[in-house]
Specification:
58% helix, Rossmann fold, 434 Repressor (Amino-terminal Domain)
Length: 448
């Protein structure tokens, strides 16, 4: 879970407050101490923690909290608002040029995932109807150009390169000219990184900036490096003047120090976050939604957006008709499973649902590999078996298990779950019909 450790500590602090009816200043002080410790353990910048907790305390000991009928909820509301403010208040979008192409220059140290992030951005921009061009400006790192070409091919974006024996400034200039001649409206420039910040690196980046005057300079940093990421962001901003930050590997960051500090220290927004290894695992950064997820309130807006991106509206309509006519088959089940997988891992999806925070997810045995077995079992069935599972007898179950690399018990379990799903869908359609006819529905399975 994103920021799992921090989220758990903060939620524990609020739980203790909820157990109290009326709050005293002492109760608030104890809560503030726990919040301070939680943030420091999450590797949040010390000055950021100090300022943040001072703001919280100033608001939390006011009359709106201490005289409230639900003081604990008021404290949580204040923390939510201040966390949102700390991370940037609202989403910061790309500043597209009024006259194409929009030039975006990605900078950062080696190992932060800069080249992969370029591919992710290009894929996202293509979904928005843009025509991105990737420019290979890193001529120093071995295989950097080849890596960008592979990434570009996967997302269907062209890559401009002049090899590794040219001046990066000349490559970038030629690439931008190429984009104008070929109708590319966004240019993404991959630049050289180093293992550490040095004068040579900064000098080269400053030369590129002066030569092309990019509309966006985006710094790519590894969120798992915590305070180091913040120091790198501060240095790049001082030397180069960045326009925003992209945090990578956020899905593996249990602490959250970088996300909670970088905006406050640099005064530059976090624009995107990498949340996985796949080339579509990138999201716009919404401070309000992230604050809500940290506090265990879920993120239904992101959940709905992911669902809209992943689910085919026509297929959803056809499925509804099949459910109404009770013709739901294993083919339909497999199709729905594949669409759910496009939304991301099951754990990531559940995180967005209110109330499904760290502790709740820990108690669930969520294994995305199980979905692989389910798909294998269904795909080992014949067309007739998928359409009419009732014909699957003992010998067929053995054949399906052998063909899918699973056990007969796993096949039996899936068949049982599928039958339960069909029964539940039948009950929903019966219920809807009864409501339309104005009758009370008898539900013997719960004794109503």
């Amino acid at each position: 879970m994103v920021f799992e450790s921090l989220a758990e500590k903060l939620q524990n602090a609020f739980k203790r407050l909820k157990n109290k009816g009326k709050l005293t200043e002492k109760d608030v002080d104890e809560a503030m101490r726990e919040i301070r410790l939680a943030l420091l353990e999450a590797d949040v910048n010390f000055k950021v923690v100090k300022d943040f907790v001072n703001k919280l305390k100033e608001r939390a000991v006011g009359s709106e909290v201490l005289e409230s009928l639900t003081p604990a909820q008021q404290v949580i509301k204040i923390v939510n608002e201040e966390l949102t403010e700390l991370m940037g208040k609202s989403q910061s979008k790309i500043n597209f040029a009024s006259r194409p192409p929009t030039i975006m220059m990605l900078v950062g140290l080696q190992g932060t995932g800069k080249t992969t992030t370029m591919g992710k951005l290009a894929g996202m921009l293509k979904k928005q109807g843009r025509r991105p061009l990737l420019i290979a400006g890193d001529i120093y790192r071995p295989a950097a150009i080849k890596q960008l070409q592979v990434v570009g091919e996967k997302v269907g974006a062209p890559v401009f390169t002049m090899g590794d024996i040219q001046n990066p400034v000349d490559i970038v200039k030629a690439g931008i000219e190429h984009s104008v001649n070929n109708g590319n409206d966004v240019v993404l420039i991959d630049t050289a990184g180093r293992l550490h910040i040095d004068e040579e690196l900064m000098g080269e980046l400053q030369n590129i900036k002066s030569a092309i005057k990019p509309h966006e300079i985006l710094l790519v940093v590894d969120s798992m490096t915590g305070q180091d990421a913040v120091n790198v962001a501060e240095h790049f901003n001082e030397e180069l003047g960045i326009d925003g930050v992209i945090l990578t590997k956020l899905d593996g960051d249990a602490r959250g120090g970088a996300a909670l500090s970088v905006r406050a220290v640099t005064n530059k927004p976090i624009k995107f976050v990498g949340v996985g290894e796949k080339l579509d695992d990138i999201e716009p950064f919404h401070p309000d939604r992230m604050a809500s997820r940290i506090l265990g309130m879920g993120d239904m807006l992101s959940f709905i957006e992911k669902a809209q991106e992943s689910f085919d509206a026509q297929k959803a309509k056809e499925l509804e008709e099949k459910i109404r006519s009770r013709q739901f088959t294993f083919d339909d089940f497999l199709d729905q499973l594949q669409q759910v997988q496009q939304m991301g891992s099951i754990s990531q999806i559940l995180e967005m649902i209110p109330g499904m925070g760290g502790k709740q997810l820990k108690n669930l045995d969520i294994d995305d590999k199980e979905l692989v077995y389910v798909k294998a079992i269904i795909q080992s069935m014949t067309r007739e078996e998928r359409q009419n599972p009732s014909i699957i007898n003992g010998s067929r179950r053995k054949r399906i298990a052998a063909g899918s690399g699973t056990s007969v018990q796993q096949v039996n379990k899936l068949l049982k779950q599928f039958e339960q799903t069909r029964k539940m869908m039948k009950q929903f359609t019966d219920m809807e019909k009864s409501v339309k006819k104005g009758r009370k529905l008898k539900m013997p399975f719960i004794g109503i």
